[in-house]
Request: fold
Amino acid sequence: MKYKPFYTLNSLLPFSIMDRYLTSELIPPFLFGVGAFSSIGVTIDAVFELVRKIVESGLPVGIALQVFLLTLPKFIVLAFPMSTLLATLMTYSRLSSESELIALRGCGVSVYRMVLTAVFLSLLVTGLTFAFNEEIAPAASYQAAVTLEKALKSDKPPIAKQDNFLYAEKRDVKQPDGKKQKILIRLYYADQFDGERFRGLTIIDRSDQKARQGLSQIVVADSGEWNPSENTWNIYKGTIYLVAPDSSYRNIVRFEQQQLQLPRTAFELAQKSKDYDQMNIAQALEQLEIERLGGDDKKIRKLKIRIQQKLALPFVCVVFGLVGAAMGSIPQRTGRGTSFGISVIVIFSYYLLGFLTSALGEANVLSPFMAAWLPDFLGLGTGIFLLIRVAQR
Reply:
């Protein structure tokens, strides 16, 4: 067999007959994996719930089908890395068991060069995964939630409705010893937020204690909304209590309508609060800025981890491509069923590790960066180790 590279106009690297052959062998199992893994995921996560809503809530079958299709991109994104592992492991295992890889090595082709094809295709899938995860999956997930909510007779989209809204606004205060400590300056609670107004609103304001000689202001009202023309809160039918340091009431003011000079942060947080899988990176960064205003370190850390995970997820394709190609290149007799089983074990191990590092990140044991990227780094190291071992045989 002659190993004769040729060059395309749009490529700086040689693309050989071997590369074309390996690519043609990798694509079918990859497509099969995308279909299989995404179907399994969407069936377990969405189909059973939709069937329940059809039976119990009278959800129209046409709407259920629409929600099903809108939910599918989220699982296709997760299927891309899994399919990359399945395709590389299955293809290289078959070629190894049929001695085709041995023949290529006999022609002077190194294992590194044979695996390079899988790595290059994995990089292409990485770009595809990133695009899907940024532009398609979040918007589709949000639209699925909106469509389902409207079909179940709700007038507002999911992000504009919240019950038992609670928001604590904190500020760093320098202590006498020079250290900074977060203190609560305002606490907002509402029975419900309907997208425009807070209902059953309570505000505890401790932001200006010095100016009011240690008094804390407590506002209890039927409702409150943001007035964008004057940058104030409009509060309706309520009472303002001024509380002295000894917890006694200094003054009580009842009103039908009152304007308060308070930040808009609570409204932004309520209106823009989406599930993590409904936000792309840009939206998640905007949400992070809002969370920073609130000063809740736990929420801030969790959102930072999710942002890093959105960046790390596409590169799992490269990791799985390298690991699958390296494991498949080991001389052995492996059938398709065995390759599929090994793929499931590797996938389960990787995502279990990802769950553990994410939990350690939320516990502040690992940084958000390491919590998201450590499984990728360990997987990449494992793939390189296996590849070197195969090349030395």
In short: The chain has three domains: 7-154+309-391, 162-269, 273-306. Residues 128 and 224 are 45 Å apart (CA to CA).
